[in-house]
Amino acid sequence: MSASRFLTLLATSALVLSGVQAETHDIVFANNCGFGTPVLKANGQTLSTGQGVTFGGPLISAIAFLQTGGCGDNGEGCTLIETTLRNPTSPGSGSSTDISLIPP
After folding, report:
1. Is residue 5 part of a domain?
2. Tens digits of residue pLDDT in 35-81
3. Mind listing the pLDDT tens digit for each residue in 69-83?
4. Facing residues of 63 across strands?
5. Phi/psi of residue 13, each to 5°?
6. 27-54 burial by CB neighbour count: b if 16+ within 10 A, else e?
7. Is there a domain that residue 44 lies in?
């Protein structure tokens, strides 16, 4: 293979690979209530207490709620969101979010 063909192949490969993007999801809280602490949890672990966070892959079965002192550890007794954030692999798949109220 000549040097020019090799460089062309290398440049083409670099362009193709640079177009591939990894899955990331940014979460930013906007607490307009003036009180409480936003909480983001997944698998029993606290992932954020109000600060923005970026995930370098899917976020599966996470919950978020505003901890005002009256919520349980997993948002019981408060309005919360349940979310899965992931890039779709087929039509109709991917992220989903719902709003729930779990009684104490």
Report:
1. no
2. 999 999 999 999 999 999 999 999 999 999 999 999 999 999 999 99
3. 999 999 999 999 999
4. 41, 82
5. -60, -40
6. bebeeeeeebebbbbbeeeebbeeeeee
7. yes
Total number of domains in the chain: 1
Dihedral sign computed on CA atoms, order 89, 59, 26, 32: positive
In this structure, is residue 97 part of a structural domain?
yes
Distances in Å between the alpha carbon of 42 and those of 19, 61, 79, 81?
Answer: 30, 6, 16, 12
Dig out the tokens for 13 from the structure: 């490969």
Contact 78, 70 (CB under 8 A): yes
> H helices of 1-104, where?
3-18
In a domain, 8, yes or no: no
pTM: 0.75
Q: Across all residues in the chain, what is the average pLDDT?
A: 84
pLDDT class of 17 with cuts at 50, 70, 90: very low
> How far are the Cα atoms of 9, 14, 19, 30, 57 from residue 6, in angstroms, in the given order?
5, 12, 20, 51, 34
Host domain of residue 79? 21-101
